[in-house]
Amino acid sequence: MLLDHDRLGTPLRIGLGTIATLVVVFLLAPIVFITLLSFGSSPWLIFPPPGWTLQWYREMWADPGWLLAMWNSTKVALIVTFLSVVLGFLTSLALVRGKFRGRAVLRGFFITPMVLPVVVLAVALYAMCLKLGLNGTLTGFVIGHLVIALPFSIITLCNALEGYDFALEEAALICGASPWQVKWRVTLPALRLSLFAAAVFSFLVSWDEVVVSIFMATPGMETLPVRIWSALRQDLSPVIAAVSTVLIGITLLFMLLASFFRKDQDGQ
């Protein structure tokens, strides 16, 4: 019976491995293509490239428009990350530990931006910010991106708090710690991995957001994805591929940091 099981299991493992490999290739092929195009010597997006050059990266770093858009994206993403983690942590505490009615409904309400069509959400945010005079401002961008990033933070931290042993806090209180000391020295250190994950998700969601940013952007304030979208409508310069490669690189960097941080915590 064991031999029959092994004979049946080997083809199954090979088949599943083949399917997994094909899926990975399908997902990574566009990323590989755009990265190779960013080093191509052709002034057009031609694959395979006739030669290799770093010209498009030099043009990207020499263009103040690209640098300003990159700085705007970084600035918005950092502010959104901070606010998303802080508000997400406080909201998660209320949803998990609160003793009020309608917690499940409220939790579903916070997740609504994840299931609502992004275009609908973008139009609503645009109308609200236009009414308040925030369209094209840093505050308007932060509000728009925060609405999208906050659900990721809340979900991550709610799941962490549901598996957290609150007896640790009770023990700290019995030992004489104040409620604020308990949160600072016990709860936050115990949830540092989840807090870091929430920060990574929030940063990447804000960094890559394009639909809401298009509605919020003005000539004086645009993020990097909006700049890429505008450049695509004008021409197909390989500079766009270079900027896209930078976006991919930063995203991969954050994912690697999250992976190393998780391994470090598991090792402890």
Order of helices and strands: HHHHHHHHHHHH
Stretches where pLDDT is under 50 for at least 5 consecutive residues are none
Instruction: Determine the structural class based on helices, strands and strand pairing.
Output: mainly alpha
Task: Give the count of helical stretches.
Answer: 12
Q: What fraction of the residues are assigned to beta strands by DSSP?
A: under 5%
| Overall pLDDT confidence | 81
Number of strands: 0
Structural overview:
It is a single chain. The protein has 268 residues and is mainly α. 81% of the residues lie in helices and 0% in strands. It is built from 12 helices and no strands. α3 (64-97) packs across α9 (192-208), α4 packs across α6 and α6 (138-162) runs antiparallel to α9. The chain is globular. The mean pLDDT is 81.
